[in-house]
Amino acid sequence: MISIFKNKNSIFYSKKYFRTTCAPLFFLLFLISVIPTSQADEGDYWSQSVNVFNYSCTDGDVDCWTDKRNSLETLPLQVYSPLKPIQVKGKHHICVSFPHLKDSYWVGVAYGIITEGRRLGQKITLFEAGGYTNLDAQLNQVDDCITNGGEALIIGPISSNGNAKQIEIIREKGIPVIVLVTGINTAVDANSLQSFIDMGYTSCKWVLDQETNNSNTTNIVWFPGPPGAGWSIASNVGCLKALKGSKIKILETNWGDTGKSIQLQLVEETLQNLASGPEPEFQYIVGTGTTIEAAVGALRARKLQNKIKLVSTYYTPGIDLFIKRGLISMAPSDQMISQATIAIDQAVRLLEGVEMATGGRPEYNTGRITEHIQQPILIVTPKNYNKFDSSTTLAPKGWSPVFSVN
């Protein structure tokens, strides 16, 4: 059944992804042997409306992201129709590299990778580095996968600069590279990622909109994510852009890895410093999904849940549960499952010389035709929760990646 979610800017259509029976999560390496193309179920075909960048940010120039020609309101909405299994000529070995699988956001991305790899009959080697501080681990894992016959690389880079040289070397070998979720400051062949400038902007602008009729200054504390990660740096840029010249004041900016224990410690320190008096010195905590999940319990323990509002910069199953209960005020979804499924389709098209689904657009500086897409941002609140279709955002409850050896 096709499900529909509407917001004021767009409508998207998606099919519910099928569930699979999965083995327990393995920490470092997932080798997924997927069914042959001939066995793939045509009934799992999907399509979705996406935003297409007018100038693809695939050449590594960070100015592309803030160019007014790529501002969110200018991006056309186009239906992305992926390949059907019968159109795929062969099984390819696609390496997929994540920074970690410590939170449910990346588990959702893994779900999209695996289900689409299965649908298109591809061999997927999926691995994760264990955290944003483990750049060397990610570099070594990518090297190992490419050495063992990887024909394409889909990567969520730990560092927008630290991963760049390796990607340049891989592309020099004729191996296509697709960037997923987090950005990179070098040339790649396709992007399937949301602008985290827009995600940070959306969350902080939402706070601003809630305080439109408030003549007083509203204080917030801000948790953008890991220092050095492309997505968190971009999120910070977007938030600052949204609040520039407003009466919203950021009292603290706290950077840190998205492991829950680290984010909880940062939240606890902030509450100790700024919320130990009769009244807290701030009215909102805005930050990563793990920040906001951790903050729910921390606020309840101090009996501050009715005095401080929580706003996330992205969506997770924990966020979903707390929004449903009215404990979180807002979270935007970047539809990470769809980002992953599209990245697989992009990889297969590049490997088989098939035109990109949207036709592509000129690259920002070079004019090279590449594809850079992002999903429309979905704003979810307790008020509109019942209208939210989570199938492009959340993996099925209890799902974990398959581990096998072939």
Task: Summarize the SSE layout with pairings.
Elements: E1 2-6, E2 11-15, E3 29-32, E4 48-52, H1 63-66, E5 77-80, E6 93-98, H2 104-119, E7 123-128, H3 135-147, E8 152-155, H4 164-172, E9 177-180, E10 190-192, H5 196-210, E11 218-225, H6 230-243, E12 248-255, H7 260-274, E13 284-287, H8 289-301, E14 309-312, H9 317-324, E15 331-333, H10 336-352, E16 361-362, E17 369-374, E18 378-380
Parallel strand pairs: 6-7, 6-8, 8-9, 9-10, 10-17, 11-12, 11-13, 13-14
Antiparallel strand pairs: 1-2, 3-7, 4-5, 4-17, 15-18, 16-17
Helix pairs in contact: 2-10, 5-6, 7-8
Instruction: Bin the strand percentage.
Output: 15-25%
Oligomer: single chain
What portion of residues is helical?
A: 25-40%
Q: Low-confidence spans: pLDDT under 50, at least 5 residues?
A: 1-43
SS content category? alpha/beta
How many domains in all?
2
Number of helices: 10
CA-atom Rg in angstroms: 20 Å
- Measured between the Cα atoms of the first and last residue, the distance is 34 Å
> Superfamily at the CATH H level of the largest domain?
Response regulator
Mean pLDDT: 87
Order of helices and strands: EEEEHEEHEHEHEEHEHEHEHEHEHEEE
CATH fold-type name of the largest domain = Rossmann fold
> Which CATH class of the largest domain?
Alpha Beta
